[in-house]
Amino acid sequence: MKEQKEKPLYDEMVEGLSVFVIRTADKDNPTPAELNAMVEITKILFRTI
Question: What highest taxon heads this organism's lineage (predicted)?
Answer without folding.
Answer: Bacteria
